[in-house]
């Protein structure tokens, strides 16, 4: 759980809306389905896999990507993921 707490805190500190998940799966809210798909694509291009979850699985304005943090991730892995999210999030204007 240490890795999950670390990652969730990092995402919150960056300004992402990560909802209220109590599991190692962290949702990253993107709004519209198109934004979630684009977020997933840009993250993948930078080496990070985050599956988009879109309508009809969630409400039309509640699309997101999901990240699963495990005990196998190192702090370096998590820091790299946070840096990628920061770059992509700023580029997409999801955070400022």
Largest sheet: 3 strands, antiparallel
Report the β-strand fraction as a percent range: 15-25%
The oligomerization state is single chain
Named CATH architecture: Alpha-Beta Complex
Total number of helical segments?
A: 3
Q: CATH H level: which superfamily?
A: Aspartate Aminotransferase, domain 1
Secondary structural class: alpha+beta
- Which fold name fills CATH's third level, the topology? Aspartate Aminotransferase, domain 1
Residue runs with pLDDT of under 50 for 5 or more positions: none
Distance separating the two termini: 28 Å
- Provide the succession of SSEs: HEHEEH
Strand arrangement, major sheet: 1-3-2
**How many structural domains in the coordinates?**
1
Layout of helices and strands, plus pairs?
Blueprint: H1 2-14, E1 25-31, H2 33-45, E2 51-53, E3 63-68, H3 75-91
Antiparallel strand pairs: 1-3, 2-3
Key features of this structure:
96 residues; Aspartate Aminotransferase, domain 1
């Amino acid at each position: 759980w240490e890795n999950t707490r670390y990652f969730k805190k990092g995402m919150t500190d960056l300004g992402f809306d990560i909802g209220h998940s109590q599991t190692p799966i962290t949702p990253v809210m993107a709004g519209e389905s198109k934004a979630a798909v684009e977020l997933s694509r840009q993250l993948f291009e930078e080496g990070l896999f985050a599956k988009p979850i879109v309508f009809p699985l969630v409400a039309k304005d509640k699309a997101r990507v999901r990240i699963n943090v495990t005990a196998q991730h190192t702090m370096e892995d998590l820091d790299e993921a946070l840096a990628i999210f920061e770059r992509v999030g700023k580029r997409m204007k999801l955070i400022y």
